[in-house]
Structures are given as C-alpha cells and as structure tokens.
Amino acid sequence: MLRSVEPFRVGLCQVPAYPLERAEENWTAILAALDEAGRQGAQLVGLPECSYPAYYVRDERPYDRPGVRPFAEVSAALAAKCRQWGYWLAAGLAVPHPDGSLTNSGLVFDPAGEIRGRYDKSFLWHFDARWFRRGREFPVWDAGFARFGVLICADARQPEVARALAVNGAEVILDLTAWVAWGRTMAELSTTQCEYLVPVRAFENGVWIAAADRYGPEGTSLVYAGRSSVYDPEGVTRFCAPADVGTTVVFEIEPMRVERPARRPGLYRRLTEPTASLPVMELLGQAVVPPAESRRVAVVPSRPAFDPEAVLAAYLDQREQDADLVVIGGAPAAEGWEAALPRLEAAVRERGGSVLFGVAGDGGRPRQTAVLVHPGGIVVHEASHGRGIATGETLPPVVATPAGRVGILCGEEGYVPEVARILMLEGAEVLAWTHFADAPMTEQVARARSDENRVYTAVAGPETGIIVAPHGAPMTIAPRGSGLAMAAQVNPAMTRWKDMAPGTNALTDRIPEAYGVLTA
C-alpha cells in the first residue's frame, strides 16, 4: 500500500525507436517527450530502456560513434529538465563507466537535477550480454510521495527482481523497457510481457507498475511493442497506449490496500544456493529421448464440496483416456475425509497414473491440503502460504510420478513466486496446482509460472482449469462453469530447455548471491 494518502502523477514517455545512426533525431524526440510530461504535471517520469543513444548499441563504446552526444552532455541535459519541471526522472540509458564497461541502466534524477543513483539491468537479454555489464543490486528511492524502484525490460521475466524491489520497500516500480514484439500489423504489435508477465509482477507483489516502452522499428529486425502501460496492485491494466504511435502519458496513481499471502523468508534458502549445487542441474545433465517422454495431463474442475466418489470417477474417466496425471480443483471437506484415501490409493495402484486434489477443512483450525496419490504412495501437503488459514511448516515437495517430476501447489501457494521457483530448482517438470478459488488473475499467474520457470503448469479450481506450456502459452482451457475435464499432451523433455533467447537462460542467468534480501 502507498504510504501517501494523496494521489500522484507518473509520466511515461513512449518515444520512437531510432537506430544508433539517427541519435540526434532520437535526442530531439526524447527532449520533446520530457517537456510534454512536465506540461502535464508529472511528478515521476520514466524514459524507456536505452532511450539514448539506442538499444542495439553494437559494442561497449557507443558514445564514440559520430553523431552521438557525449554522455556527460546527455546527463546534464536530463538534469536540467528535472530542474525545469520539478519531477523525478528514471532515464533508460546506456551508461559508460571509467573502467570501459557499459551498463543498461535506469539513471535516477531528483527534482533538483541531482543524480540519486542507478539501477543496472540484471537479467541480460540475448545480445545485451555482449556489451552490457550485469547489475546485482535492487535499490529503492524515496520521492516523498512514494518509494519507487526500477527494473528494465527482461528483468520482469525473473520473479526475483521485482520481488527484491518490493521487499526493499518499493511501492511503485518503473519498468523501463524495449519490448521486442510481433504482430500481424504494426497496430497489433504485442508481447507476453504486457499480456501477463508484468501484470503478474504487480499482482504478486501488491505494487503499482508503470511501464515506459519504445515503439516502432530500430533497424531492419527489431520492432518494439509500444503499449506503455500502468498496472495496479491487483494486476489490472489501468492504461495501455497504442502500439504504433508516440505519446507521453501521465497517469494518476492512487493509494490501494491489497492483501497477499505473507512471505516466509525462512523457507526460501534454496533461492540463494549456488546454481551448480541445485538438484535441477543434475536433472538437466541427464540424457533424454523426447519421443519416450510423452505424457498426458488432465485438469478437472472441482465440485462445491469434496466428494471422494466424484474424485475417483474423474480419475478413472481420465485414466481411461490415458491421463498420467489428473489435477482436480480444491473443495471444502468434512472431517474424516482421509477415510477415502485407501480406496483411491488402491485404484491408482491398479490403474496407474496419478491424481492430485485439494481439500479445505477446519477441524479446529482452517487449513488447505493437497493430496497426491501415485503408484508409490500418498503425499499429503498442507499449504505453506495462504490468507486466513493455518499454514504448514514446509514447502511443497517434488514427487516422481508417471507424468514426470511433479511439484505440488496448494491454494494461494501458486501466487507466491518463491514457491514455484524453488520447485523448479528442485527439479519439477510439472507444477500441479489445486486451487480453491477461480480468481481473475489465476490464468495469468499460471502462464507466468510456466514462462519464468520453463515448466508445465496444470491448475484446476472450482469453475475451470488450464494447462500451460513451458513458454507460457495455454495448451487447453476448460470452459468456465462447464464442469468439463480437459487434457493435453506434455513432454517433460521440453522442461530441460531453459533458454529464453541466445545467451539467456531462465536458470543459469539467475544471480543467487544477489537474492539475500529474499531470505532475510
């Protein structure tokens, strides 16, 4: 929640993309956008990623190129704009350093034109790593009306970055971005970041996120999505600019109170362990034959109350259709529900496959429990995170099943990015999520969990279910309210491929030593 009881105005400069050879035209557009933000009364302004001199800088010395203004001149002019208009500015710039290195940074100026600090992009995308030095810190600035942090473009693909900013006290995050896009027309350009990744970062952290993007082509192959956006702490898109025009947007942000499952830093030690020591690394080193790894997963919406006969019938029905894992939504259960387990266990031992379901009970303390029945036995997991329930003391396990290595998610555990992340680090190939509510953001969260971890996610709730591929695309969705089970073919071999782009890996490009704030 924002400390201030007064709204404030954030400005997003959606400037055109120019290649390095057109740096002067670029600079003119930047100054015009900054003036427009000032005229509209912005108090906090964002310039997109590497607004100057360009995003595709080609080497570590872009300021040595003809027609590019010296960095000192650029930063002095930006400081002057802050003094002129009296706003805070986070400027996306390629920043040179005395040691000859270059960072892809958000340079932060206060209204007096003083440089208050810098955020350096930490999750470098594709050719970023050829000339930019990786950042390892997650600073937050106090502007008086709000505390804000900065992330840059692909940083939103790594849940640790926004989470670290929120834990460090950010109430608002400026996303300075150059969203590489695709679309059938220039007006339809879009990206997974604005569709679900950035909204989920706002939702899971309970913060506002304001994203300033470039638009149009830079050179012959890079084209940016535009769509500079504002997302509220519920993950709702409050504003989204067009894809194909320049604009300076000033949006009024108001305080919002939201509740999220409480973090439990003592359970997150795995996040800071060296990558080479993680269980998933041993798994990724194993040879696999993809055609031999084909599996089938089904999702089944739950009944209004736990009915063991309905669970058994759903499992048997989907097993008849070759499902190796059946994920059933959670439901309230009366005391004594455990008496149904021996019959379910016997059926699974006889028929094979596996089934996961959720039960919510009281028994003196409200709790939510996920139960996985597989040929090797029964795993009972009490939700480690959730509002209004007594929580268990351990994170969910990863279990070897006929569908592959399954990481269990129970209820609101799916909304806590650390939980799914640790399951991936433990070697999960499928996140099986039994949920007790069909909240508006559940589908987007499921897509984000798959995308950021490069695993399958299968979630079922009372009204619907969805199965998501490792790159975040839905594979099947149960029509809401239909009660229908839906299934999809999955291949755990695909989860061994953690690359997002050349030189960019969801696993090995994490920075465990920088995530200590998440476990403190």
UniProtKB/TrEMBL annotation:
Pfam families: CN_hydrolase (PF00795). Residues 8-255, 295-502 form the CN hydrolase domain. InterPro entries: Aliph_Amidase/BUP, C-N_Hydrolase, C-N_Hydrolase_sf. Keywords: Hydrolase. This is Carbon-nitrogen hydrolase family protein. The keyword Hydrolase applies. SUPFAM superfamilies: Carbon-nitrogen hydrolase. It comes from the Bacteria. The keyword Hydrolase applies. CDD domains: nitrilase (cd07197). Gene3D superfamilies: Carbon-nitrogen hydrolase (3.60.110.10). PANTHER family: BETA-UREIDOPROPIONASE, NITRILASE C965.09-RELATED. GO terms for molecular function: hydrolase activity. It comes from Tepidiforma bonchosmolovskayae.
